[in-house]
Amino acid sequence: MGGLWAYVAVFLLVAIGWAGVPAIGGAVIAGAAVLASQGKLDFGGVLVASILATEAGGLAGYAVGIRWGRALLDHPGPGLDRRQRALSAGEALYAKWGRLAVFFTPVLVSGIVRMKYSQFVIWNLIAGAVYVLSVGPAAYGAGKVTSGQASAGAVGSLLWGIAVGVAAFLLARRYYRRHKARRASGAGHRGPAGRRGPAGRRGHARPGPATAGPAPAPAPDEES
Q1: pLDDT tens, residue by residue, 45-69
Q2: Which of 44, 157, 181, 215 is buried most deeply by CB count within 10 Å?
Q3: Which residues pair with 196 in a beta bridge?
Q4: Phi, psi at residue 150, to the nearest 5°?
């Protein structure tokens, strides 16, 4: 079902889309899954090629972001305001969501904000797999149903794709809440100014030995 070049084409197009070219990756994954539902491609081969492509494309986009990303987005020309707004929005998402922002921002932004490479490799793979395993089965099941080949397996595939997307959203929201709580807890421990005295309590110096003369001036606060 389908020659080798069909899967190579799926890999290349999905990689290009995941690297930063909009509106390609999802359309190719869905289209290839529909072809697989009609027996023209192997569905497992489509999923494997697509997941590998998201990782390869993600690493390529990350490398471009590290080296030239900010210069590309700030380069004068058509769409400069739109590009700068997109960059500002991506940076805000990273500040708010941490590593989970990989799910919601172009990989170029991950390179621009200099996300740790080892973390990006893992989180990009997870994001790509979740995306493929949501879009692919949903499109495969939809292709079966709309072509009159409805079956328990086809409906199950459609529901599986939807369930993966919903589960990813719920887990992301849970992670964000925990991430936000940890940040708030850390800020509370440090105090409003984030400073501590030598004794570990903000604004209090460690008491020294008693002297007969006047008490010495308190020592200045030190950074924790």
Answers
A1: 999 999 999 999 999 999 999 998 8
A2: 157
A3: 222
A4: -60, 135
Predicted model pTM: 0.72
How many other β-carbons are positioned within 10 Å of the β-carbon of residue 217? 7
Q: What's the rounded Cα separation, in Å, for the pair 151 and 7?
A: 26
Of 116, 87, 94, 91, residue with least CA distance to 20: 87
For 34, 63, 185, the CA distances from 154, given in Å and listed in that order, are 11, 39, 47
For 164-181, letters b (16+ CB in 10 Å) and e give bbeebeeeeeeeeeeeee
pLDDT per residue over 174-209, tens digit each? 766 776 777 677 666 555 544 444 444 444 444 544
The amino acid sitting at 42 is D
Residue 217 DSSP label: P
Asked whether the beta carbons of 147 and 37 are under 8 A apart, the reply is yes
Q: How far is CA 83 from CA 66, 69, 96, 159, in A?
A: 17, 11, 20, 36
The per-residue DSSP string of 134-150 comes to: HHHHHHHHHHHHHTT--
| Cα 210 to Cα 71, 207, 214, 215, distances in angstroms | 61, 9, 10, 8
**Secondary structure class of 196 (helix, strand, coil):** strand
Residue 86: Cβ within 10 Å count: 16
Residue 78 one-letter amino acid? P
